[in-house]
Design goal:
about 280 residues, Rossmann fold, six-stranded mixed sheet, globular
């Protein structure tokens, strides 16, 4: 049973916030969904936006400036949460583990394994729910994200051929198996067997699988987390694979939503071209 938390008219469409019981995460989950005006006439394509550490469904929904561009291109936007929520869901004192830090993987270690199934939630459970509840053309999906969400978008796109027409990312965590944003979380959620970690590393997946469509990556040259994000690892892997990719280091931009909003139009227009095919 899905509950409507709010619905507001936005650029001629509707920005809604909805809550539902998740079987995979064993808790109530909340997501934002923007439907452009064109959805009144029939199903529209869907762009997923995965947010970064400490975020909820709300951050990008209110800060990224995405709705105006999506309305222009007649694309729906979905803003899922970044982790399971609730008093019964385990957490950690650190900002980068537990609630707000699901890392878009399926945990198999206690105490995380009962609730932290964000991979299945984003790739299977939530698509089925929204596909059955809203006028969405689920045969035309694309995915993007910021930081931890960029990591999620890239790893999902390269692991699930045919599910997404295109993928983009803003300052993604690109090589988490050798980064402090990755090793800590993978060890907690997946255990010490590092062979399991490689399935969630965009640079390693680029070497192994690549992506059967267009990719756009933007990262700021003044991003304060560049040494943790490791964009050079992904760029090198893409070049070695000769992958179709647009990889941009944007001069003077940092890691914030000021950066994300500055290039959101480019990303939505990039996806719109792929979704029209």
């Amino acid at each position: 049973m899905m509950q409507t938390q709010s619905e507001n008219i936005c650029f001629g469409g509707t920005q809604g916030v909805y809550t539902h019981a998740s079987s995979r995460c064993a808790c109530d989950m909340t997501f934002g969904l923007f439907l452009p005006a064109a959805a009144k006439d029939g199903p529209v394509p869907l762009l997923w936006y995965l947010s970064g550490l400490t975020c909820s469904h709300e951050n990008a929904m209110t800060k990224a400036g995405a709705q105006a561009w999506a309305a222009e291109q007649s694309i729906a936007l979905i803003f899922p949460d970044t982790s399971p929520r609730g008093d019964h869901v385990p957490d950690d004192e650190a900002y980068d583990l537990g609630k707000g830090a699901g890392f878009y993987i399926n945990a198999n270690q206690k105490p995380w394994s009962k609730h932290f199934k964000m991979w299945d939630y984003i790739t299977a459970e939530l698509p089925e729910i929204v596909g059955n509840s809203f006028p969405l053309d689920m045969s035309r999906q694309a995915i993007t994200g910021h930081s931890m969400g960029g990591h999620g978008a890239l790893t999902m796109a390269m692991s699930l051929p045919g599910q997404y027409r295109s993928v983009s990312a803003f300052s993604p965590i690109s090589n988490p198996t050798v980064s402090e944003w990755g090793r800590k979380q993978f060890n907690a959620y997946l255990g010490a067997n590092e062979t399991l970690w490689s399935n969630h590393d965009a640079s390693l997946l680029m070497q192994k699988n690549g992506f059967d469509g267009p990719i756009l990556i933007d990262t700021g040259t003044n991003d304060q987390f560049l040494d943790i994000l490791k964009p050079e690892a992904l760029a090198h892997a893409a070049a070695m694979r000769r992958q179709q990719i647009i990889f941009r280091m944007q001069p003077d931009y940092d890691h914030s939503y000021y950066f994300v909003s500055s290039f959101m139009g480019d990303h939505i227009n990039f996806h719109a071209e792929a979704l029209r095919l």
